[in-house]
Design a protein that fits this description.
Layout (H helix, E strand, L loop, with lengths): L8 E5 L4 H12 L3 E6 L2 H10 L7 E3 L5 H15 L4 E4 L14 H29 L2 E6 L12 H20 L5 E8 L13 H10 L7 H12 L8 E4 L7
Parallel strand pairs: 1-2, 1-4, 2-3, 4-5, 5-6, 6-7
The structure holds NADPH dihydro-nicotinamide-adenine-dinucleotide phosphate (NDP).
The site of NADPH dihydro-nicotinamide-adenine-dinucleotide phosphate (NDP) has 28 residues, from helix 1.
Amino acid sequence: MTENIKDKVVVITGASSGLGESTARLLAQNGAKLILAARRLDRLQALAHELGLGDDATVKVDVTDRKQVEVLIAHAVKVHGRVDVLLNNAGLMPSSMLESLHIDEWDRMIDVNIKGVLYGIAAALPLMKRQMSGHIINVSSVAGHKVGPGGAVYAATKHAVRVISEGLRQEVKPYNIRTTIISPGAVATNLIDTITDPAIAANMKKTYEKAIPADSFARVVAFAMSQPEDVDINEVLFRPTSQAY
Ligand code: NDP
């Protein structure tokens, strides 16, 4: 499962915690060349230090700012000469009932979860076309397949990620670019800390009692990356074995 990872240049958004951080650890162990991005530079630097990466392995990026995402990809090219994999992972889940009108949180989810992914694609696609190779991995969710009360906007953003990824998949055939959607169930990270509604937060906390460790996600990334170049793993949906939803 770890072939074809060594020396690949991998850009990870949302690498400062949770799924992104865990993936950085696994890929670093397998010899990938990493560029870690998020807003909390101190956390990225501590991770880079721990993994024995250089100072140029971290970039402070807010994915809602298109220019910053362009700078991120340009930085990876400056340091390593190419980008083999973009893991569009940054996201948040401040779930609430629509009637609560947490409109700022709706905006934030749309900006980070959808536009952040689009900006990543926009920054990497011209480069990957020139390279005639590349792999864009977008993070959706079980909520990209179904919706429940309190999850309308988050689920909408994660459905959007799947639709955008599938459209991208069909369009990039001429350029030898691979696309993967990863849709996790409950994985133990800081994601549910973004919920501000006390009742929804309490419910979600219960669901996440069964959450599985973040290295489950990292192994899926490694699996998709490690396939031979003519094999394109387009989608993986995984959950804790005990999760019904
Ligand atoms: P965490 O809250 O642990 O991590 C979220 C990451 O996103 C952080 O590194 C954070 O970094 C980054 N981030 C948030 N906003 C921005 C921004 N504007 N610009 C750049 N980076 C940003 O949660 P997870 O690791 O769980 O989340 C990762 C992805 O996985 C998300 O897309 C989430 O929707 C998805 N997911 C998670 C599931 C789970 O159960 N954990 C299930 C299904 C999907 P910083 O704050 O430093 O910017």
